[in-house]
Amino acid sequence: MKITVVGTGYVGLVSGVCMSEIGHNVTCLDINRNVINKLRKGKVPYYEPKLEKMILRNIKKNNLSFSNSYKNSTQEVNIFFICVGTPENNDGSSNLKYVYDVAKSLAKNISEDAIVFIKSTVPVGTNALIQKLINENKKNNINIMVASNPEFLKEGDAVNDFLNPDRVIVGTSSKDVMSVVKKIYEPLKIKNEKIVFMPIKAAELTKYAANSFLATKISFINELSILSDALNINIEHIKRGIGSDPRIGDKFLNAGLGFGGSCFPKDIASLINIYEQKNLESNLLRSVREVNKNQRINFMKKILSHFKNSKLTNKKLMIWGLSFKPETDDIRESISIKLIKDLAKKVKKLYVYDPIAIKNSQKELNRFNNIDFLKSQYSNISECDALIVCTEWEIFKNPDMAKLKKLKSKVVFDGRNCLNKEKILQNNIKYIGVSK
Ligand code: UDX
Predict the structure, then answer these.
(1) Is the CB of 165 under 6 A from ligand 1?
(2) Do 160 and 123 sit in the same domain of this protein?
(3) Would you tell me how many other CB atoms lie within 10 Å of the CB of residue 76?
(4) C-beta atoms surrounding 420 within 10 Å
(5) Total structural domains in the chain?
(6) 165 and 104 in a common domain
(7) Distance from residue 129's CA to the centre of ligand 1 (Å)
(8) Looking at CB atoms within 10 Å, which of 18, 79, 134, 248 has the fewest?
(9) Given 167, 198, 229, which residue is the final one in a domain?
């Protein structure tokens, strides 16, 4: 099937490329010419495992192309996906400007009956507003239906998430749309019951509910880690103890610095705003957000109290991990970056390392003159008083103990409980985790 995907960010590019991978003829459209020119050469503007190879493969197979022209990307196409960002406004509501701009441009250019799927995360009721906007701008003699198709792609594993979805959620009441959806996703060979149809507004809310629930699980285990710390209990035991119950599940129960990224914080703020718009209160979501913010503050307190007698102003600290999670170069809402900004004001120097997020971090942290970006994770370690691990990259999990012993104060702060505590203690290095 011929498909046009608008937006070549984390969601649009992965969705478009994966749909070409499963056999569809896909055009990825973006108004950013620079990005489009790079993509035509197979250059991805961000890191996502497997994506670059998949792009090159499908360009060669001639079923994937990139364009910045609405005219060219709408000719003889009747399936569209809108995958542009919906950033957070100051009041927590979602900025829908980009979605509306795209919807209007598509309406003006689409030349035959079509379906426009909204994959962007949008507040409940937005699909209806998009349908109205498209009806006001489309050519008279054609019919364009809007349907909701939210995404559940985790950065760093997005290709796998698309090709092996737990479920495909589609908000529509149209039988025609349902049969088109089944054809689009048919090559995935997923069980029929995994394609879940529901009313449009329910699909819009499902996206927020999914992310908010996952964030709630994280804040639950993080709040419990505060108590476990006080009771001298290892939170990892509790994770195993409750996670073994299939009703709870052991995923998203990793205590640590808390959640960041471009989705959880934004989606929680947006969902709280949706409650407010109905004059309703979500105490739970506000608490989830509050617990998350406190997690970083509590971890900072651990660092400060460890160095309580000596002034931090003459300390040099090493920080591993800048991205908001492993396997991505994305630093949006990264807790590590927030912690670094807090620490940079207090310490003499920070040596920071990340396997791939250094470039993005340098742009974000360039106003601090006491932060050095390392080319290798052990450079300058003998100058440092302590190591702080903020992102659980695989390469950090089994560090070279001989090198860690060079730390002046011989202490490791493990913000993601990802290190082997016993091994570190056996090497006479102090270990401070998150109730581990
Ligand atoms: C999330 C959802 O998982 C995905 O389904 C949705 O489509 C987009 O938002 P993403 O933000 O890419 O994906 O990353 P995710 O793996 O969910 O992690 C989000 C944050 O939670 C990260 O900062 C991560 O470090 C943190 N996290 C995750 C924890 O602190 N503990 C956990 O147990 C899991």
Answers:
(1) no
(2) yes
(3) 7
(4) 14
(5) 3
(6) yes
(7) 29
(8) 248
(9) 198
pLDDT, tens only, 195-235:
999 999 999 999 999 999 999 999 999 999 999 999 999 99
Question: Do 166 and 213 lie in a common domain?
Answer: no
Query: Does some domain include residue 132?
Result: yes
Is the CB of 17 inside a 6 Å radius of any atom of ligand 1?
Answer: no
The whole-number pLDDT of residue 156 equals 96
With both helix axes pointing from N to C terminus, report the angle between 264-277 and 283-306 in degrees, rounded to the nearest 10.
Answer: 140
Where a domain ends, among 175, 198, 221? 198
Rg (CA), the chain: 24
- Catalytic center residues: 263
In a domain, 65, yes or no: yes
> Ligand 1 within 6 A of 254 CB?
yes
Specify the ligand 1 atom closest to the Cα of 11.
7
Q: Same domain, yes or no, for 159 and 21?
A: yes
Q: How far is ligand 1, taken at its centre, from the CA of residue 154, in Å?
A: 7
Q: Does the reported pTM lie above 0.90?
A: yes
pLDDT for the residue numbered 375: 95
The CA 214 to ligand 1 mean position distance, Å, reads 8
> 203 in a domain, yes or no?
no
Distance 261 CA to ligand 1 centre (A): 7
State the CATH number of the domain containing residue 373.
3.40.50.720
Nearest-atom index, ligand 1, CA of 150: 7
Look at residues 144, 119, 140 and name the one whose alpha carbon lies nearest to residue 131: 144
Nearest-atom number in ligand 1 for the CA of 263 is: 9
Q: Which atom of ligand 1 is nearest to the CA of 324?
A: 23
Q: For ligand 1, atom 9, which residue shows the shortest CA distance?
A: 263
Q: Is 236 in the pocket of ligand 1 (CB under 6 A)?
A: no
Query: Domain check: are 143 and 36 in the same one?
Result: yes
CA of 208 from ligand 1 middle (Å) equals: 13
Q: What is the pLDDT of residues 49-94, one digit of tens each?
A: 999 999 999 999 999 999 999 999 999 999 999 999 999 999 999 9
> Based on the domain organization, do 220 and 87 belong to the same domain?
no
- Contact residues for 37 (Cβ-Cβ < 8 A; gap 6+): none
Give me the domain span that covers residue 24.
2-198
Q: Are 149 and 171 in contact (CB under 8 A)?
A: yes
Indicate if the pLDDT at residue 311 is higher than 90: no
